[in-house]
TrEMBL record, chain A:
GO MF terms held by the record: ATP binding; ATP hydrolysis activity
Family matches, as CDD domains: ABC_Carb_Monos_I, ABC_Carb_Monos_II
Protein's recorded name: Sugar ABC transporter ATP-binding protein
Lineage: Bacteria, Bacillati, Actinomycetota, Actinomycetes, Propionibacteriales
Pfam families with a match to the protein in the record: ABC_tran
Endoplasmic reticulum is among the record's keywords: no
Coiled coil regions in record: none
UniProt region (Disordered), positions on chain: 500-522
Highest taxon, organism lineage: Bacteria
Organism: Nocardioides caeni
GO cellular component: plasma membrane
InterPro entries reported for this sequence: AAA+_ATPase, ABC_carbohydrate_import_ATPase, ABC_transporter-like_ATP-bd, ABC_transporter-like_CS, P-loop_NTPase
Keywords: ATP-binding, Cell membrane, Membrane, Nucleotide-binding, Repeat, Sugar transport, Translocase, Transport
Membrane topology field: Peripheral membrane protein
From TrEMBL, chain B:
Pfam families (alphabetical): BPD_transp_2
Record's protein name: Autoinducer 2 import system permease protein LsrC
Transit peptide is among the record's keywords: no
Main localization (coarse): membrane
Molecular function via GO: transmembrane transporter activity
Compartment annotation: Cell membrane
Subunit note: The complex is composed of two ATP-binding proteins (LsrA), two transmembrane proteins (LsrC and LsrD) and a solute-binding protein (LsrB).
Native species: Nocardioides caeni
Segments traversing the membrane: 27-46, 58-76, 82-100, 107-128, 177-198, 228-251, 263-296, 308-328
TrEMBL record, chain C:
Official protein name in the record: Autoinducer 2 import system permease protein LsrD
GO terms for MF: transmembrane transporter activity
Keyword Glycoprotein: no
Spans traversing the lipid bilayer: 33-53, 65-81, 117-138, 187-212, 233-252, 264-282, 313-332
Organism, scientific name: Nocardioides caeni
Length: 522, 343, 368
């Protein structure tokens, strides 16, 4: 472990967390979180998914109470029991997921609970709208403060979260992956604001998976791994590969074991797929044994395309066929029968019945086959589920354990088990390794590679560029609902993919330059 | 993806208010209400243009008006209170008992007592819902049984009748100021005060936020439990007030007072365009919904629809309202999606 | 997370036990069993302490009165497990009773024909609810408050001020005649058949699995190919049909039909279902618990009646049970979390650094 954060001896640290621990039931999400942030600095917090960053953020925000450890704000010991307390103490947090009130106006979302008051403690709406517009001007965006928040794009929602946090005038601003859905221009605007806040003497914590952003913006960087503190160092005195190796605890090159596979006939054929407001004129093919990566920014429409192909969402025009046979729209069951398997992005909401048992989840698609004379027993489900759990090395003590009690990696294995049990022709997998630990991550990659080797067609959506570049035989880049590039494996470079991902439909692709390249999210 | 929306031409506040009113969901029910009153009056002018008709048109909805306001405040937080009928019954009985014990009791004391009884019941509901974090539908359903049972147990077949009430209180039930019944004036004041609070006070807006997304409200640091508790207390207190209204208007209180009125209050709220899962709607809407519900019942026989089909018409009205809300929201969603394409 | 299990090609096949708790705990430590025990305790207490409770009429009357409640509670259980609710059942019952009465007494149809037509009408009314909920996407609470008024209005419109009474003797008597020498009326037979049918449907079919999945997460169910809308439509249709069947029975039993036949039953039905351990949020519940819940209300009712208590006392008790049971069940999970389980090793994150996988270990075949 390296030295702790450099600090100015005179001023107290804005934030000091030392050896903070937090468990949820049997799961210890945080073992020894340590983070020291000096005023007037921007501090990066990096680590793999599941390293405990978000838990740490939620302790700072007062969402969770720590089990052990030191927590000081501006030199005073604090113990927040609610987000209201942390807010009152001068902490502003931008969460990973926007948390807006869809029925209320944009301005009210920013100022809820502290709206400017006029005479008779009456909310001064005119001033509230003017204040909102001033905030948007500072962020360089134009949003109508009067419109309701329902129906905003993810990027706009994130902008509102940022405006909300800035307006709090906080001593400490924590940003948990604020740039995931933003375009390059918006990111630069955000950074300008962040720097001006730093120059005012505030402290900022910045969580990101994009290292170029960390190096561009931050002064110091703290690395976490497996719920524990690893190191803190000055950004200027470290390198990207140093940070990465601390994050994962080994060399990265081993993460993507892609073996060559014979590429066969067309399995999935998508022609002219369009849905208003989501995506337009999407055409592509996936062949047997081929892994096709769908890259792009969060919110570009990649997941929407996948959902439309599988039939959980509607589309307006176009056609989808598997092995040359067309698939009816909006009929997931037909898609399953045609051989499509779909591992969705949101494991907890869509991939699994999270409160259901391991056995019922694994058997959930094939259970029709398991029933005898219309009767289905738990025994039959357990018997069918056990071999698949074993094949995928699902770690659970019993098949009736709720999926909710398992780690993210194990949950993903259950989702894969449930789909592989259907013996599919095509696997659509959205963010295959999001929120799962490093070990399982490589297991999943190896599994995908093996499956392709056996002739399965795979359509993989991923926001982790190294994953896409390491795994995919061909990379399709989606930008604002359109496919903007189709790059074969040999030619795929981060620069090329990023250029296609951030190109707006109207403009010509910008030449990739060193400063404006952004990894598409994580 | 881009956040650059076309800059809108600035418009004056007056134009904006007018457009809001014209586009509002409330206007739709006002039109239905006005149409019904016009038709009924055209058929029989005494529906409005007679001393009694005028008074009844205004007076009849006053009880449901007060209940609907209370229910709306609870519904907007994504809760519901099914116990208000029982609360009304208890309040009415307490009012009756006070007068039986001392006929000279001041009207103000009686109002205060009725409201206080209701507020206590509301506080119990609110505590159970917020402390134990259990669904209000079940809690208030249970409370409805418990309270009605307790009331019946206490009252038995006893009936407090007109002769038990002092004249000055009975008169209040029909008294008018400038031809407007006093009870209606009180109800309208309640509508105005609560509506004003929900629209312009921080606490009022927080109720909407809580109903719009309860989890986000907690994450945001809003005092969700306290606000929901407050909503239940207000709803209970207004049910208590409705109990006082009921005794003043009908000069009677018995074990069945206010039975089944809770569903009417929920219906009024739904007809008024308040989303049953919280977050949107206005007190004005709920009030107009209550007005419409009561008026339609009075008007149907005049419009030539047999009184036996009244229930069915009310049911159609409720279904029609929520279907309308759904259609409007789908259309809005489409507009938003298309706007995103053209952005 | 340790990866020691994937170390070599042909990793050892893991074996899994099917259950984390032994049979006794699994069966006994449930919400349903608590209600069954409560039912037995109350029944035994009443037998010993309440005069005439052991008489021949007690079970007979109890079955007669609570048969329609129990019938309607069966589809209601499935509906609540999907996270919806049907407040209109008692009004559907009213329409069905009115249809039966009007057809038999005013139009001289035979009782079976009228009953079939009434059940069809009930199914249509239920399907209408289902259509609004499943295909228009309206909240069932609001829809069925609307149809509660609408269907009751239909019943009132059908009956108006007519006196509907006097069914043919044979049909009027059948439901309430005793089965042979037993203490039970004939209506118990169809009720038992329905209980079995719904128990199988909920617990032993793919349809039932879908019902639970929808309740736990309708999005996840949709993503697994469950037809969420059709499932809900089927359930509301069943609810309407069964309520209509109960309506035919209630009309025959009373030998007359009034505009308020069955009014207020919906709350008793829902109280029974929730008391039986079904979660109002959906996803959890079992049919034996619901049967026990309804019977508990029935036994309490007749015991208190025999004890000379008014109907309001049973009302208070139902209310308290309802409030108590939701509070208990929402806090039971916290209590259960403290009970011993087999060690959950998988859940705890390993503290060691993940070992580097050796190259060449990716030969393990995953798909057979």
């Amino acid at each position: 472990m390296t030295t702790s954060a450099p600090r100015d001896a005179a001023a107290p640290l804005t934030l000091a967390l030392r050896d903070v621990a937090k468990s949820f039931g049997a799961v210890q999400a945080l073992k020894s979180g340590t983070l020291e942030v000096a005023p007037g600095s921007i501090h990066a917090l990096v680590g793999e998914n599941g390293a405990g960053k978000s838990t740490l953020v939620k302790i700072i925000a007062g969402v969770h109470r720590r089990d052990a450890g030191v927590f000081e704000l501006l030199g005073d010991a604090v113990d927040f029991g609610s987000t209201a307390e942390s807010k009152a103490a001068g902490v502003a947090v931008i969460y990973q997921e926007p948390t807006l009130f869809p029925d209320l106006s944009v301005a009210e979302n920013i100022f809820m609970g502290r709206q400017p008051l006029g005479r008779g403690r009456r909310i001064d709406r005119a001033r509230m709208h003017a204040d909102s517009e001033a905030l948007f001007a500072r962020l360089g965006v134009s949003l109508d403060p009067r419109r309701e928040a329902r129906g905003l794009s993810i990027a706009d929602q994130q902008i509102i979260e940022i405006a909300k946090a800035i307006s709090l005038d906080a001593a400490l601003l924590v940003m948990d992956e604020p740039t995931a859905a933003l375009s390059g221009v918006e990111v630069q605007r955000l950074f300008a604001v962040a720097r001006s806040l730093r120059d005012e003497g505030r402290a900022l914590v910045f969580i990101s998976h994009r290292f170029d952003e960390v190096f561009d913006l931050c002064d110091t960087v703290t690395v976490m791994r497996d719920g524990a503190y690893v190191s803190t160092s000055r950004v200027a005195e470290t390198t990207e590969s140093e940070i990465v190796s601390r994050m994962v605890g080994r060399e990265v090159a081993e993460l993507f074991p892609k073996t060559a596979a014979t590429i066969g006939d067309v399995v999935l054929d998508v022609q002219g797929l369009s849905a208003a407001g989501e995506f337009h004129d999407i055409s592509f093919q996936v062949r047997s044994g081929e892994i096709v990566g769908l890259a792009g920014l969060v919110g570009a429409g990649r997941s929407e395309i996948a959902r439309a192909i599988f039939g959980v969402d509607a589309y307006d025009e176009g056609s989808v066929s598997v092995d040359g046979r067309p698939i009816a729209a909006r009929r997931p069951r037909r898609a399953i029968r045609a051989g499509i398997a779909f591992v969705p992005e949101d494991r907890r909401q869509q991939g699994l019945v999270i409160e259901g048992s391991v056995a019922r989840n694994i058997a959930s698609i094939i259970r029709r086959r398991l029933s005898l004379g219309g009767l289905l027993t738990s025994r039959a489900e357990n018997r069918a589920a056990a071999p698949w759990a074993s094949t995928l090395q699902v770690k659970t003590s019993a098949l009736d354990m709720r999926a909710a009690t398992m780690s993210g990696g194990n949950q993903q294995k259950v989702v894969l088990a449930k789909w592989l049990a259907t013996e599919p022709r095509l696997l659509i997998i959205d963010e295959p390794t999001r929120g799962i630990d490093v070990g399982t991550k490589s297991e999943v990659h190896r599994l995908l590679s093996d499956l392709a080797g056996e002739g399965l067609a795979i359509l993989m959506i991923s926001s982790e560029l190294p994953e896409v570049l390491g795994m995919a035989d061909r990379v399709l880049v989606v930008c604002e609902g359109r496919i903007t590039a189709d790059i074969p494996r040999e030619e795929a470079t981060p620069e090329l993919v990023m250029a296609a991902a951030t190109r707006s439909a109207a403009t010509t692709p910008p030449a990739p330059t060193a400063s404006s390249d952004k990894e598409p999210v994580a | 993806m881009t956040t650059l929306a076309p800059t809108r031409p600035t418009e004056s506040a007056g134009v904006r208010v007018l457009r809001t009113v014209l586009r509002s969901r409330e206007l739709a029910i006002v039109i239905v209400l006005v149409a019904i009153v016009l038709f009924a009056t055209a058929r029989r002018s005494s529906f409005v243009f007679s001393a009694d008709g005028w008074r009844d048109t205004l007076l009849a909805p006053s009880i449901l008006l007060v209940l609907a306001v209370g229910q709306m405040v609870v519904v907007v937080t994504r809760n519901v209170d099914l116990s208000i009928g029982s609360t009304l019954g208890i309040s009415a009985y307490v009012v009756g008992k006070i007068f039986v014990a001392n006929p000279d009791t001041s009207v103000f004391v009686v109002f205060a007592a009725g409201i206080a009884v209701g507020a206590v019941v509301g506080a119990i509901n609110g505590l159970l819902v917020t402390v134990f974090n259990v669904p209000s539908l079940v809690i208030t359903l249970g409370m409805m049984y418990v309270l009605r049972g307790a009331l019946t147990h206490e009252v038995g077949s006893e009936r407090i009748n007109a002769q038990d009430f002092p004249a000055h209180f009975e008169k209040l039930g029909t008294q008018q100021v400038l031809t407007i019944p006093v009870l209606t004036i009180i109800a309208l004041v309640v509508v105005a005060v609560v509506g004003y609070y929900l629209h312009t006070a921080r606490g009022g807006r927080e109720l909407y936020a809580i109903g719009s997304d309860p989890d986000a409200a907690v994450l945001y640091g809003l005092p969700a439990a306290r606000r929901v508790f407050g909503a239940f207390v207000l709803c209970g207190a207004l049910a208590g007030l409705a109990g006082v209204f009921s005794t003043a208007r009908y000069a009677t209180a018995f074990s069945g007072t206010g039975k089944d009125i809770e569903l009417q209050a929920v219906a009024a709220v739904v007809i008024g365009g308040v989303a049953i899962f919280g977050g949107s709607g206005t007190v004005w809407g709920a009030a107009i919904g209550a007005f419409l519900l009561v008026t339609i019942n009075r008007a149907l026989p005049i419009l030539g629809i047999s009184e036996f089909w009244q229930g069915a018409v009310v049911g159609l009205l409720i279904i029609g309202s929520i279907v309308l809300d759904r259609v409007l929201s789908i259309r809005r969603q489409h507009r938003l999606l298309e706007a995103r394409d053209h952005a | 997370m340790s990866t020691q299990t994937d170390g070599s090609a042909g990793a050892p096949a893991r074996t899994y036990s099917s259950y984390s708790r032994n049979v006794a705990l699994r069966v006994l430590m449930t919400r349903e069993m608590a209600i069954v025990v409560a039912l037995v305790v109350v029944y035994l207490y009443a037998l010993g302490n309440i005069q005439f409770f052991d008489g021949p009429l007690t079970l007979f009357n109890l079955s007669k009165e609570y048969a329609p409640i129990l019938m309607m509670a069966l589809p209601m259980t499935l509906i609540i497990i999907t996270g919806e609710i049907d407040l209109s059942v008692a009004s559907t019952l009213g329409v069905s009773a009115a249809v039966t009465g009007v057809l038999v007494i005013e139009h001289d149809l035979s009782v079976p024909t009228a009953a079939v037509l009434a059940v069809v009408v009930g199914a249509v009314l239920g399907a209408l609810n289902g259509f609004f909920v499943a295909y228009v996407g309206l909240p069932s609470l609001a829809v069925t408050i609307g149809t509660l008024a609408l269907y009751r209005g239909l019943a009132e419109g059908l009956i108006q001020d007519k006196r509907i009474a006097g069914f043919p003797d044979t049909w009027q008597d059948w439901p309430t005649e005793r089965i042979g020498e037993t203490q039970y009326p004939n209506i118990v037979i169809p009720v038992v058949v329905l209980v079995v049918v719904f128990a199988v449907l909920l617990h032993f079919t793919t349809f039932g699995r879908g019902v639970f999945e929808i309740g736990l997460s309708d999005e996840a169910a949709h993503f697994s190919g469950v037809n969420v809308a059709r499932t809900k439509l089927v359930l509301f249709t069943l609810s309407g049909a069964v309520a209509a069947l109960a309506g035919v029975y209630v009309a025959l039993k009373a030998n007359s039909v009034a505009t308020d036949t069955g009014a207020g039953f919906e709350l008793k039905v829902i109280a029974g279902v929730l008391l039986g351990g079904v979660s109002i949020f959906g996803g959890r519940g079992a049919l034996h618990g619901v049967v026990a819940g309804v019977l508990l209300i029935a036994v309490l009712n007749s015991a208190l009646q025999l004890d000379g208590q008014g109907s309001e006392v049973i009302q208070i008790i139902i209310g308290l049970l309802l409030v108590g049971s939701v509070i208990a069940s929402s806090n039971l999970s916290r209590v259960r979390a403290l009970l011993p389980r087999r060690a959950v090793k998988t859940a705890a994150r390993s503290t060691t650094t993940p070992p580097t996988p050796t190259p060449g270990d990716d030969t393990r075949k995953v798909v057979q």
